[in-house]
Write a structure and sequence with these properties.
With about 950 residues, this protein is α+β, with helices and mostly antiparallel strands. Helices cover about 15% and strands about 35% of the residues. The chain has 15 helices and 53 strands. Strands 34, 35, 36, 37, 38, 40, 41, 42 and 45 form a nine-stranded antiparallel beta sheet that branches. Strands 9-10-8-12-14-15-16 form a seven-stranded parallel beta sheet, with helices on both faces. Strand 52 and strand 53 form a beta hairpin. Helix 7 packs parallel to helix 10, helix 8 runs parallel beside helix 9 and helix 10 packs across helix 11. The protein is globular. The relative contact order is 0.08.
Length: about 950
Amino acid sequence: MNRTSRYVNIATALITALFLLPWSFRSGRAAAGILPAHTDTILPGHLIVKFKQRPPILGKSTPITALPLSDKLRRMLQAAGAISARPAFPATMIRDALWRERLSRIIEIEFDPAVPVRSLAAALQKDDRIEYAEPIYVRRLAFVPNDPGITLQNYLNIIQAPQAWDITHGDSTVVIAIVDTGVDWQHPDLAPNLWRNPGEIPGNGLDDDGNGYIDDVHGWDFANNDNDPKNYASTAAAAHGTHVAGLAAAAGNNGLGVAGLAFGCRLMILKAALDTPSAPAADGIIYGFRAIAYAIENGADVINLSWGGPGSSQVEQDIIRYAVSRGVVVVAAAGNSQSEQPFYPAAYEHVLAVAATNLNDERANFSNFGHWLDLTAPGIGLYSTWPGKDYRFMSGTSMAAPLVAAAAALVKSQHPDWSAVAIAQQLRQTADPISDKNPDHYYKLGRGRLNVVRALTETPPGIRILSPELSDQSGGDGDGIFEPGEILELRWRVTNDLAPVSGVRIRIMPMDSYIDILTGDASLGALAPGDTLAGPAFRLRIKETTPASYQTHLILQIEAGPHRDFFGVPLIVKPYYRNIVAGRVATTVTSFGAIGFLDYAGSGGTVGLGFQYPRGSPSVLFHGSLILAVAPDSVSDVAYGNDAHDRYDYQYTTDGEIQIRESDWADIAAEAVFTDAAADHPLGVLVFESVYGWLTEPNDRFVILEYTVENISGQDLRGLYIGQYLDWDIGEAVSNQVDFIESEALGFMFAESGGYYGLAGLLPDMPVRHSAINNPQYVWPPANFTDAIKFRFASGQLAIQRSEHADDWSHMLTYGPFDLAPGASVRVAFAVMAGANVTELRQNARLARMAYRPPVISGASRSTLPRQFAFWPPAPNPLSLQKCAAVVLRFALPRPQEVSLQLYNILGQHIAALPPRRFNAGSHRLAWRIAAAGLRLEPGVYFIHLEAGPFSRTQKVLILP
């Protein structure tokens, strides 16, 4: 057995014994029709760990045995091939005493690259002595290569650079750090403007200035750990840093090539990419955070980051906070995925996030956008330096960012005593408004497009909104879920970073018709530089007609004389989804039959929890869906189905959105009601969905999904199959396998990297079909997981129960076929679970069956039955009969009883009734269409009276027009 195999076997055994997640929930796959992903790729064999107290690390390497960890975790690290750890930020690197203590608690552990990174991080995170453990993210460059023959674009005129140069070229003491793929620092248009480390004697092989780096004359290569920050590869990615550096500060007025915007300033070159990288670090930034720390400690005034990705990192945010505390301006590219998804580091607090525009001040078609942006700059067809004394055109937010970084350097040259926040505010406040040219992105391109002359000549106020917080404590139910009819309070503070100002007014701008502003206007008077005060709480009402999961931003308009600015506060009303955090597992359920994420097609896996085990770890579930099928052309679901992967056949009933409710036998319960009315060929069903979870052992490793499917089509529904589909990605998706244990009705997926994730059938008591679905063959284009393919799997015509090889798989459990007469219903239930191994997974399936108490129980022991009669408030309530088909009633019977239901108006007059019906002991739920048979009900208060033998109870329901 070779060394790698031995480490993998030992580490996998230890990791799975600790119930760990695999290292990646999605790799190498983007939904068809969506731009190729900026995925959160991570560096194998490396971890960042921050301790709550400083570990005993004094030198560049400390044995693993010396780390303050439990014996179990220390042994696990050793089994993973970890021998020693090193400081992420050497003590000699950080001069500030407070931040030296904070950053000295962060270490990097290197181990065998075959061991799952996220699994190791999840295990370490469980130790009480660790603040966080996370991978090292490989950040992607934010550029879009263009045809180098394009005519030179006059972008410098757009930002008024020539006029700005009449004011300043920049001061040679101001330093711009280029953290990138490396820079050809010998380029004749860059060499004159290189920063030189004043404390270092070139070529003597000594660390003369004691900063921890030998002969770092012009910067450092953090990927190869040497003092030559040039990239010697011959790719566009390798040249990226050279192009970015030229835009910022190529030498000007030298009769050669181009002039950088801040050509009087200096360039510190910090390389954070390998010369000849391989996956997953190909064309990626791997040590950006360490390069940022170097820049801070060695005199950079501005740091440019023309790269990023979707995953946020605590160590990156930590080091950016440190930068701002030391007066360093951080500028970052917004990304090129043409989406509103936050792109990091641009979306971090204290970073100037820069989008790209064209020469007409319109958003570049590739540029990201969103309320998290600060300003824009030209980013199409920018001409700049290229390795080997060359010059070329490039486009991207990567090219827009260094223009803003250079502008920050010019402002710093004029105002050397200004803080980083003040410089950033100056650039924002003096940007030219471009909203009229981008009506589809109003308030989503920051304050405007960079104007360097205005930044150098104007003295605007720098008013910022601090700590905005929405609350439903005083005008709602206080649960933090903002719902129609609630009154919300918005609490906020305001500060001024720049010139004194009077007549300050803050008000909420009405953005739509669903929000009534009750109080949203405040006059604050004068604000001197540095003043901070709390404004009055604004109050707003969410209208009753607001649809579920409605998302908007409350725009706080800032006015001070002619000065205008804004700040966006996100608001989501009664979301379609709820996060179920139960014991050791956590997942997201929706109002339309999806599990894991709210929007599998467009969110990039960001809206929701997926499926986490242990809770808080990265998800291993990409997507899940309820599937109903009766024929190859009659399938209802929300699972893929076309090139765009935007299939949504289920439609929640108005007032049937997912709600948390009480349960007499589970710790957590949620329910929703939806139909398949949005399908191309609707089956005509009403689906009652219930989700159950437990907080404590032994039931804390699964959630139960229960569906009651009722035929409301008015016709017989024959041959109905009901299935649960799950697309897991355990570690590398292509390394997954599928298996099935028929005796447990248990299908599950696993990977050699560790972790077992399963789906067990609980109800009804009948054989269940299990389908192993090869995604490349049946799900991804051109197959597209069509209705015909789904029906073949659901019905057993495609009988693939297990995988024969590792690949990207998904799976499905199916009950049926069922024949439903009009008004009839059938109930099915599944358990979604995780375990360290097959034995534990089987045990969890048995525990789920023991824990599950379906509303109709046959032959159950008395100990599993409700102990007393109960009748819960109806849902939805209020009820709009024009929008919702039925009111859902829930009740519990300790023994079999005949149940009758009566409806009365507020005067006590009898309005309607359901025929008496006998129910078994247990918990029950039924839907009553109280406006059936043409009954007309006036809006108002009504009472539903339930009688069951000697028991009776009445609940109130409000009926709306």
